[in-house]
Design a protein that fits this description.
single chain, alpha+beta, Arc Repressor Mutant, subunit A, three-stranded antiparallel beta sheet, 4 helices
């Protein structure tokens, strides 16, 4: 099953539905796209305080956390399934809901690099996951 949203960071930044249609306009606001892009590229749970400081470093910590919570809620209301996975006080993107072309490209290029590396060695020297 394809993720509900496709985040395109290679070339012009955009967000589309799995069908290829543009995502709802409310999701296309720059700060929302920036948060989705950051979480997609990080590929790890990011502490909320880190996200708040990154996106609202010019305001108080309390205001930054409140703004982050509001932004997360706003994104959630426009997607049929929650695109975020909360892990304690950290948040990450659910790859079953949001995919990213840059992440996919990185995975393909890493696989290609590993296959090229293995080509010059005996099969026994290649990692088992390959």
């Amino acid at each position: 099953m394809r993720p509900l949203l496709q985040l395109h960071l290679l070339g012009r930044v955009s967000l589309t539905l799995a069908s290829g249609a543009p995502a709802p306009g409310a999701l296309l606001q720059p700060r929302k796209l920036a948060l989705l892009a950051y979480l997609a590229l990080e590929q790890r749970p990011v502490p909320r305080h880190e996200l708040a400081a990154l996106m609202w470093g010019h305001v108080t910590d309390d205001r930054a956390r409140a703004s982050l919570n509001q932004l997360l809620h706003s994104i959630r209301t426009h997607v049929p399934r929650d695109p975020f996975i909360a892990e304690g006080s950290a948040v990450r993107l659910d790859p079953a809901v949001v995919s990213c072309d840059a992440v996919d490209f990185y995975g393909i290029s890493a696989t290609f690099a590993l296959s090229s590396w293995c080509d010059v060695r005996t099969p026994r020297s290649c990692p088992a996951s390959y």
